[in-house]
Every structure is written in structure tokens, then in C-alpha cells.
């Protein structure tokens, strides 16, 4: 029994060192062989194809398009298109007023009077609580303007303003850069179309009626989104255009049914003040409805007065409405080249006459004065004699007067 026990112990003693030696050898072998088996980093990079970088170039073609100005006048093609739309939607002209009201539908159809009643009662259509009632309106507007009562102030449809604009813009070959003055623009029935067409600050207006100015400034300009155009609308009468500036020149001046309500003398005063503000040759003045301020004087006298102002009567024009049976008559005046040249010659002649008159006055004054002595000796003698005769002080005569006295 002792032998097997001794052999087993010996085997255990020999196995542990051998096992440690074997493991160390195996680890060293793995350490030496593994780098050879594993590809190097350089080999790894060379074995792979280099990454491909793709540059995608997107060519953007920018086309600069200059927007053509909107047409002033409705064309026959426009009229034909609208008629086709009316026909395709079965919208014929209604036969009677009752037929119109039978078609009057909607969630809450209300007249202007009913709308105004609700606005005044509720401080608006939809209103905030009482403590916040006035906190949400940047430009508070009277209810009468909100329901557009001022659109009925002219005795004819509001749409007639577009007709006036079309005629005047075409007749004067108006461009957006031109300067325009309206005498009596009222509530901007016509002016709105000019303001929209022209560049900013190119529309001027003189209006005397307070209600019309309120409608123009407090309702029409904000409601139409035209505040950025900055029209110059001035309250005034007596044809005082001084607030528009001394150097402004107008390409178009017009008065739509305004001179009817102004005394003839004041009309002529206005024309005299405006003639010098009308751009020579190109500028035009249009007056609608009548020219009684001129015809009451008689043809020859009117022509003479216009010529003195540098204006020339061109003729009568008529213009039909697009939407209703109506036409307007316009009289055109302008500053022709010949009249302008004649006025310039008269101005030059007047200046020359003033220069000659001034020269004669200077010559007469020169003759009335005693001739100045020319030599130093003459001046000394003149001073000495003056001291002797007038017995001047020693300060004036430099001491010579004292010795002589």
C-alpha cells in the first residue's frame, strides 16, 4: 500500500512544474506567432481600395425676371374670359331687384345699418370683455367707416373710381415713377388706384373736407394695405399747394368733378400756381365734367389767360365705364414746347431789362458824385482846403489845421 501512495505523490510533484512550463511555452508561442498570422495595419490599408469621394455639383440656374407692370386697362380678352366664367357658373344678369334679394343667402346677411348697430353696441363684431375692449386695435376706426357709408357719398357707384384712373393713366402715358397731384381726392375713390400703381410718395392730394380725409386715412389706406406707399394727403383749401414743396414737378394733375364747387376766381388762382409746377411738355392737367371757369369768360379771353399761364387747351375726351352705363367728359391742358419757349424768352428779356435799368441807375449815381481826385497831391490839397474852410479839428486835419488857424 505504501508504494502506490509514494508514486502518486511523485507524479503530483512532477506534474505541476511541467504544467506551468507548458503553459508558459504555449503563451510565448502564441505571442510570437500571432503577429505573423495577423495582417499589419499598413497591409490592411493597402489591401483595401481607397475610399471614393463623390462630389455632386448641383447647377442652379437663376433667371432674373423683371416683373412687367400690371396692365392699366381691361383688355377685350379679359372681358371675353369673364363672360365665359359667368356663363359656365350660370350667373346671368338678374331681371329684378326682388330676384336679387331672393338669392341673398349666407350665415348672417345684414345691411349696413344692422352692421353699424352691432358695431356700436358691441364695440365691434366680436368683442373682448369690457376690461380688454380697447387693447387690441392699433388704429381704431369709426363704425360708419367700417360699414363703408362713405362709398355712397358720390352719387354714383364706387367702382367709377377705377374708370377715372384707367382713362387718366392711359391718356397721360403714366409710369410708376411719375408724380401725380389730385385736387380734391375725397375718400380716395380714384386715388387708391393711383397710389397702388405709383411708387411710394408719388401721389399728392389736396382735400378740404374733414369727413373725406377721415375715410381716406383711417379706413381706406389701412384696409387696402397701402400705408407703405406713404401718399401725401394734405388738408387745405384756397388752392394752397405750398406744403407739397417748392421744387416738386408734376407729370399729371387732375380734378374730378371738383371745379364745379369752386368759385371761378379761385380756380384761376389754382391754375396760376400749378402752371409752374407742371413738367414742361410732358405734364398734363385734366379737368372733368365742365370748364365753366373758362367758358364763362369766352373762348378768346380763356385762351389768352391760359397762354399767359403757359398752358394750352388740347381738347375734349370721353371715357366709358366698364361696369355700368356711364361716361365722363375730360378736358386736357398742357404746357407745349412753343409756349414754354415763349415764356422762357419773356423771362430772359425781363431779366435783361432789369440789368440795363440797374446799369443806368448806377451811371446816374456816378455822374451826381464829384469826381475823385486822381493824384496824391490833389488829394492832399483837397484835404487842406476842407480843413481851412470848415475849421476842422486837429484830429481831422492832422495838425495842419491848427497851424493854419
UniProtKB/TrEMBL annotation:
Compositional bias (Basic residues): 343-367
UniProt-annotated stretches for the region Disordered: 341-373
InterPro entries registered for this protein in UniProt: SAM-dependent_MTases_sf
Domain of life of the source: Eukaryota
Cited PANTHER family: S-ADENOSYL-L-METHIONINE-DEPENDENT METHYLTRANSFERASES SUPERFAMILY PROTEIN (PTHR37886:SF1)
UniProt-recorded name of the protein: Methyltransferase type 12 domain-containing protein
Species of origin: Oryza meridionalis
Lineage: Eukaryota, Viridiplantae, Streptophyta, Embryophyta, Tracheophyta
Amino acid at each position: 500500500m505504501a508504494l502506490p501512495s509514494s508514486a502518486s505523490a511523485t507524479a503530483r510533484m512532477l506534474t505541476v512544474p511541467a504544467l506551468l512550463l507548458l503553459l508558459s511555452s504555449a503563451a510565448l508561442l502564441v505571442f510570437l506567432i500571432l503577429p505573423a498570422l495577423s495582417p499589419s495595419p499598413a497591409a490592411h490599408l493597402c489591401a483595401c481600395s481607397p475610399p471614393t469621394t463623390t462630389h455632386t455639383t448641383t447647377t442652379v440656374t437663376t433667371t432674373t425676371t423683371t416683373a412687367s407692370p400690371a396692365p392699366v386697362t381691361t383688355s377685350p380678352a379679359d372681358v371675353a374670359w369673364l363672360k365665359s366664367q359667368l356663363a359656365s357658373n350660370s350667373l346671368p344678369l338678374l331681371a329684378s331687384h326682388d330676384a336679387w334679394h331672393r338669392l341673398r343667402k349666407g350665415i348672417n346677411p345684414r345691411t349696413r345699418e344692422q352692421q353699424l348697430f352691432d358695431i356700436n353696441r358691441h364695440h365691434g363684431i366680436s368683442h373682448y370683455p369690457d376690461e380688454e375692449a380697447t387693447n387690441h386695435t392699433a388704429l381704431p376706426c369709426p363704425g360708419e367707416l367700417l360699414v363703408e357709408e362713405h362709398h355712397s357719398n358720390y352719387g354714383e357707384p364706387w367702382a367709377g373710381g377705377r374708370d377715372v384712373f384707367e382713362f387718366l393713366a392711359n391718356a397721360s402715358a403714366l409710369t410708376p415713377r411719375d408724380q401725380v397731384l389730385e385736387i380734391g381726392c375725397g375718400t380716395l375713390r380714384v386715388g387708391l388706384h393711383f397710389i397702388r400703381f405709383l411708387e411710394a410718395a408719388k401721389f399728392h392730394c389736396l382735400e378740404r373736407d374733414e369727413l373725406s380725409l377721415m375715410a381716406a386715412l383711417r379706413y381706406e389706406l389701412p384696409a387696402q394695405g397701402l400705408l407703405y406707399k406713404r401718399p401725401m394727403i394734405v388738408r387745405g383749401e384756397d388752392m394752397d399747394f405750398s406744403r407739397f414743396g417748392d421744387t416738386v414737378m408734376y407729370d399729371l394733375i387732375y380734378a374730378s368733378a371738383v371745379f364745379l364747387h369752386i368759385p371761378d376766381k379761385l380756380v384761376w388762382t389754382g391754375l396760376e400756381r400749378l402752371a409752374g409746377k407742371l413738367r414742361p411738355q410732358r405734364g398734363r392737367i385734366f379737368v372733368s365734367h365742365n370748364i365753366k371757369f373758362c367758358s364763362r369768360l369766352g373762348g378768346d379771353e380763356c385762351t389768352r389767360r391760359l397762354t399767359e399761364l403757359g398752358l394750352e387747351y388740347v381738347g375734349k375726351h370721353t371715357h366709358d365705364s366698364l361696369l355700368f352705363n356711364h361716361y365722363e367728359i375730360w378736358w386736357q391742358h398742357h404746357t407745349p414746347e412753343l409756349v414754354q419757349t415763349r415764356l422762357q424768352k419773356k423771362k430772359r428779356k425781363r431779366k435783361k431789362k432789369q440789368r440795363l435799368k440797374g446799369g443806368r441807375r448806377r451811371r446816374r449815381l456816378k455822374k451826381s458824385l464829384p469826381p475823385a481826385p486822381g493824384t496824391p497831391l490833389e488829394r492832399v490839397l483837397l484835404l487842406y482846403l476842407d480843413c481851412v474852410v470848415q475849421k476842422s479839428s486837429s484830429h481831422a486835419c492832422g495838425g495842419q489845421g491848427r497851424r493854419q488857424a
